[in-house]
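HUMAN:
Just now I want nothing more than another pair of eyes on a protein record. I would be glad if you read both lines and explained how they fit together. I have put the entry right below:
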Amino acid sequence: MVRVPNLTRADALSAVRNPLALIADRWTPTTRTVRRAALAALVMSVVIVVTGGAVRLTGSGLGCPTWPKCTDDSLTATSAMGFHGAIEFGNRMLTYVLCAAVGWAIIAARSQKPWRRGLTRLGWAQFWIVMSNAVLGGIVVLVGLNPYTVAAHFLLSTALITVAALMWQRTREGDGEPRPLVGKSVQQLVWFLVVAAVLLIAVGTVVTGAGPHAGDSSEVDRMHVTWENVAKLHAVLAWIVVTLTFALWFVLKAVDAPSGPLHRTRDLFLILLSQGIIGYVQYFTDLPEALVALHMLGSCLVWIGVMRVLLALRERPEIVADVPGPATESALTRA
C-alpha cells in the first residue's frame, strides 16, 4: 500500500486557502476517472431537466410554495403537503446531487497531471450555471410559475448541458491547436444546423409555455399565443433540422470525411427520428404526461447530438514536450 503523507500545520493552512490544490498534491486521477467524472456531470445535467419536467407534468410546481424554504415555517416538505410537496422538494434535493457530480468533475480535472487549466474552467463554468439556475428556479416559484421564467429556467439548463458536453469532449482529446477535419462549406452547413437546433429548442419552450401543462393545479398564467400554431412552427423547425442533418450526412459521405463526423451525424439523425415520432404521437394524443417527459429527454439528447457533431469537425492532439535528441544532448555536453 502507498503511504499517505502526514498532514502538517502548513498543509492545513494551505487547505483552507486552496483545498483543491491540496487534493491535487495528494491524488492523481487516471484519464478514465476524469472522463467518467465529466460524463457523470453531463448525465446529471440531463437528469435534472427530466425531473424538472416531472414536477411540471405532475402539477407540483408550487408543491413548495416559497423559496429557499419549502414553506414559510419549514425548510423541508411536510406530510401535510402530500404528493406535490414531496415531488417538488425531491427535485430541489437533486440539485445537491448535481452539485456533487459537478464538484467531482472539478476536483478530477484539477488533480489531473499535467493540470489542464481549460478543463478545470469548464467545470467551474458548470458550477456557476447551476448556482444561477438554482436562484432562477427560486424566482420561478416566487412569481407563481410565470411561463417566461420557466422558459428561461429550461434554457439555462440547456446552457449547462452545453458546457458539460464540451467538457466531456475535451477530456477525450488533447490541448493542441484545433485542426479541422472537413472543409469550410461543411463547417458552414453544420453551423446552420446548430442555429436551427437552437431555434427548435427555443420555440419548444414557447410550446410548453402555451400548452396545457402549466406545472400546478391552480390557475397559472400562460403565454398568450395560439398553442397549435406554435406547435406547427416547432414541427417545421424540426423538419428543417432533420433535413440539414440528412444533407450533412450525404455531404460527408460524398467528400469521404473521417468516420468521427459521419458516425455522429448518423447518431443525431436516429435521435431526431425517434424524437419526431414521439412529438407527433403526443400531439395527436392530447399530450399525455409520459410522452411529454420522453420528449423533454429527447430534446436534451438532440442538443447533445448536435454538439457532438459540431465538436467532431476538428481534432485536438496532445501537446508533446520537446525532448532533446542525441545530437542536441551531445552539443549540450560539449558546451
About this structure: The CA atoms of residues 118 and 175 lie 9 Å apart. The radius of gyration is 24 Å. The longest helix spans residues 82-111. DSSP finds eleven helices and two strands in the chain.
